[in-house]
Amino acid sequence: MKLGLLLGFWGEAGPPPRLLETVREAETLGYESVWTSEAFGSDALTPLAWVGAHTERMRLGTSIMQMAARAPAATAMAALSLDHLSGGRFVLGLGVSGPELVEGWYGQPFDPPLGRTRDYVEIVRRVLRRREPVECQGRHLSLPLPGGSGLGRPFLSMVRPLRPDLPILLAAEGPRNVALAREIADGWIATYYSPYRDAHYRAALAEGAARAGARATAEGFEIVATVPLIVDDDVEAAADRLRGLFARFIGGMGPRGRNFHYNAFVRMGYEEIATRVRDLWLEGRAEESAAAIPTAMIEQVALIGPAPKIRDELVEWRRSLPTTLLVHVTPEPAVLRQVAELVLDG
Q1: What is the percent of the chain with per-residue pLDDT over 70, rounded to a whole number?
Q2: Residue 219: pLDDT band by 50, 70, 90 thresholds?
Q3: Which residues have a Cβ under 8 Å from the Cβ of 102 and sit 6 or more positions away?
């Protein structure tokens, strides 16, 4: 199992302190990749280019770039540019986000995510393959634009991509999106993954792999699991550091019926707990919502507690599907080293 460092996106204060020192230390310790995110503040590409310029071996991934933020051709241009500058280290991680952000921040309609994702990835791949000027008539996205001025024409990228097969990973939570990732992408970014409750994910991946034209072999398909990891002798204290975050995602990332994170926990068998967390959050009772999350549920999708406990639990993670464990940890060198020793030396 490989180890990746998730930098995430910035908070109100801007870039985290000692950003470059943290990433350089992680590379020295054997972290194989570093990943950035975006929501509605800092973007994913600029920080990744910055840290990429100060590293030599680590792969540079986006977890995730929001598809609504850029036209597919613009995403392909950014990908090929960063791949050239980094010497072939870039990994393009994409996701659809949700209707609140797509419509509220980007001012775009939240099209059915399956169809839009399929069109988006196809256009990106055609730009990167650079076999002919790009034409694509999809159900949701088309090049050139139909019904425009009539002046649009197909273009061939001016720059020859360093890697026409640059890896594209899709973030997905629902079974249909996971199946789509297995069918058309080179990997899957799993946000809430449990090695103890993953039968529905295995079924979705098998469905996607069985589809005609499925892109990757089982050996070549990458699964990157984002996993909170907190080393603390007090398990409850470690869980407390995550309860508020989990409550915000389960309860606050969409209305009833449109929250993909809530649905992820329901599929794991936590419908009663997730519903209570969501309802309390939507009633404005954030502290009660967080308190309603049992430690046992957090332990299904996170690695928390004393180092020996985490080391024992990592045995089950290594037996499961992820090929990369993507951790978001505090930037102290001692913490980075301890996490590396737990994950890589086990």
Answers
A1: 100
A2: confident
A3: 66, 68, 96, 108, 109, 110
Question: Whole-angstrom Cα distance, residue 306 to residue 236?
Answer: 11
Q: What is the pLDDT of residue 203?
A: 97
How far apart, in whole angstroms, are the C-alpha atoms of residue 181 and residue 164? Answer: 19
SS3 string, 265-286, reads: HHHCCCHHHHHHHHHHHHCCCH
- Residues ≥6 apart with Cβ < 8 Å to 303: 227, 228, 229, 230, 310, 313, 314, 317
| 95 sits in which H/E element | strand 90-95
Spatial contact of 188 and 224, defined as CB atoms under 8 Å apart: yes
- What is the secondary structure of 190-212 as a DSSP string? ESS--TTS-HHHHHHHHHHHHST
Angle, to 10 degrees, between the axis of helix 19-29 and the axis of helix 333-344? Answer: 30
pTM metric for this prediction? 0.94
End-to-end CA distance of the chain: 10
**Quick one: tokens of 271?**
């419908």
- The CA–CA distances, whole Å, from 344 to 164, 320, 324 equal 31, 16, 11
Contact at 8 Å (CB) between 35 and 222?
no
Whether the Cβ atoms of residue 110 and residue 103 lie closer than 8 Å to each other: yes
Residue 112's pLDDT is 82
Residue type present at position 296: A
Tokens read off for 3: 């180890």
pLDDT of residue 216: 77
Residue range 4-12: mean pLDDT, rounded: 94
Residues 81 and 163: beta-carbon distance below 8 Å: no
Contacts of 57 (CB under 8 A, 6+ apart): 27, 89
